[in-house]
Amino acid sequence: MLELLGMPPAASSHAAEIDQMSVLVHWLMLVLFVGWGAFFLFVLVRFRRGANPKADYAGAKGKIAKSTEVAVAIVEVALLLFYAIPAWATRVRQFPAESEATVVRVVGEQFAWNVHYAGPDGRFGRTDIKLVSSDNPLGLDRSDPVAKDDITDINNLHVPVNRPVLVHLSSKDVIHSFGLYEMRVKQDAIPGMQIPVWFIPTVTTDDMRRKLGKPTFEYEIACSQLCGLGHFRMRGVVIVQTPDDFQKWMAEQSKDLAAGR
Ligand SMILES: [Cu+2]
């Protein structure tokens, strides 16, 4: 139903909750739009110049206007307290344990997403801004023993399905925004900050293609902050794989790294 209205397909465990919130907000906005629109038309007729030749500075004293305003405020507070804040709390109060998640660093730059995995040792190697170059966009220090097995990629975020993904998000230059529409994830990437974001992908890319009947479908990483002239081409893809395929991909990357490719 939501997809008919132009919403992207949902592919993460918390997507339904976010969608439910959007639906409630839109219903409230529809009620307000119709309500205030009707009131506006009523006012145009009721206070027309022909019937009111002399201005009345005291204004209307009806109880309905006041109680309507109070009711709208109560509904808005209820949406905030019972839906929006609890939904947000589940995103930021507790993050998945690193031992039970796919942990990855994502560093935005004008105009690409750099992806950094810790590799088999599970530890991220040292990075240094002085080492940043066109073939080492993350500034990874390969002389650090912990960095030797680290896997890096650009604009491709491989993750296994049904396992929490914990992204440590940052930026090298300006403010970008990490927007994964199908995962219902959006978080600003800010220079000088490492911001954790997490989600659990529930549908592999292949399964989603089959479901949608679109063989070329990809989960997009869209930069959602206007970050410069090349903003439009700052896009990557999230490749959600079965755990086996993900392990295979990881092993291939390690092999390529060892072979110096
Ligand atoms: Cu950007």
Question: Span between N and C termini?
Answer: 47 Å
Beta content:
15-25%
Helix coverage percent: 25-40%
The major β-sheet equals:
5 strands, mixed
The backbone outline, from C-alpha atoms, is: elongated
Oligomer: single chain
Structural classification: alpha+beta
Radius of gyration: 25 Å
Summarize the entry for a quick read.
This protein has helices spanning 15-46, 63-92, 205-212, 243-258, and strands at residues 102-109, 112-117, 151-154, 156-160, 165-171, 176-180, 185-189, 195-199, 219-223, 235-241.
Report on this model:
This protein has about 260 residues and is α+β, with helices and mostly antiparallel strands. The chain is about 35% helix and about 20% strand. The chain is built from four helices and ten strands. The strands form two sheets. The protein has a five-stranded mixed sheet. Strand 6 and strand 7 form a beta hairpin. Helix 1 runs antiparallel to helix 2 (about 65-90). The longest helix has about 30 residues, at about 15-45. It binds copper (II) ion.
What is the element layout, followed by pairings?
Layout: H1 15-46, H2 63-92, E1 102-109, E2 112-117, E3 151-154, E4 156-160, E5 165-171, E6 176-180, E7 185-189, E8 195-199, H3 205-212, E9 219-223, E10 235-241, H4 243-258
Parallel strand pairs: 1-5, 4-10
Antiparallel strand pairs: 1-2, 2-3, 5-8, 6-7, 6-9, 9-10
Helix pairs in contact: 1-2
The chain binds copper (II) ion.
Copper (II) ion binds at residues 108, 176, 223, 225, 227, 231, 234.
